């Protein structure tokens, strides 16, 4: 069964399969700050965060929240200026659409990639 259409009519990006990320990890954070900014109890932020999770599995915080350093070595981190309850699937689609345009060097630098291989 296909997902329910987004209320705005927005559609996911149409990218070839080889350009899509193979794995997307989610760090949900910001529920408490979201509630505080709206003069609501912290639990209201958690409830709103759960609703956002049903729409998209993606978050936007600027720290790794228990994400192990070894796991982040070659991770493509995306930091959005939004708290988790305000995130929806259109944010995920924007990130996926931008993914193929990133300069992914897998630990190398521009210089090392341009240099001829050592003999």
Low-confidence stretches: none
Overall pLDDT confidence: 76
Structural class: mainly alpha
Radius of gyration: 18 Å
Strand segment count: 0
Number of helices: 4
Helix content: 25-40%
Write the element-wise H/E pattern from the N-terminal end onward.
Answer: HHHH
Looking at the structure, what is the overall shape? globular
Q: For the terminal residues, how far apart are their CA atoms?
A: 54 Å
Largest sheet: none
Measured by DSSP, the beta-strand proportion falls in: under 5%
Task: Explain what the structure shows.
By secondary structure, the chain is mainly alpha-helical. The chain has a domain at 22-100. Helix content is 30%, strand content 0%.
Summary keywords:
single chain; 119 residues; mainly alpha; 4 helices; 30% helix; globular
In short, what is this structure?
This protein is mainly α and 119 residues long.
Write the layout of secondary structure elements.
Elements: H1 31-37, H2 42-55, H3 89-98, H4 110-114
Helix pairs in contact: 1-2
């Amino acid at each position: 069964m296909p997902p329910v259409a987004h209320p705005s009519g927005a559609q996911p990006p149409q990218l070839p399969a080889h350009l899509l990320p193979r794995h997307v990890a989610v760090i949900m954070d910001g529920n408490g700050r979201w509630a505080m900014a709206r003069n609501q109890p912290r639990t209201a932020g958690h409830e709103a965060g759960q609703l956002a999770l049903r729409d998209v599995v993606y978050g936007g915080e600027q720290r790794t929240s228990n994400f192990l350093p070894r796991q982040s070595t070659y991770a493509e981190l995306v930091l959005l200026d939004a708290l988790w309850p305000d995130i929806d699937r259109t944010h995920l689609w924007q990130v996926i659409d931008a993914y193929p345009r990133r300069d992914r060097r897998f630990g190398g630098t521009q210089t090392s990639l341009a240099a001829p291989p050592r003999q």
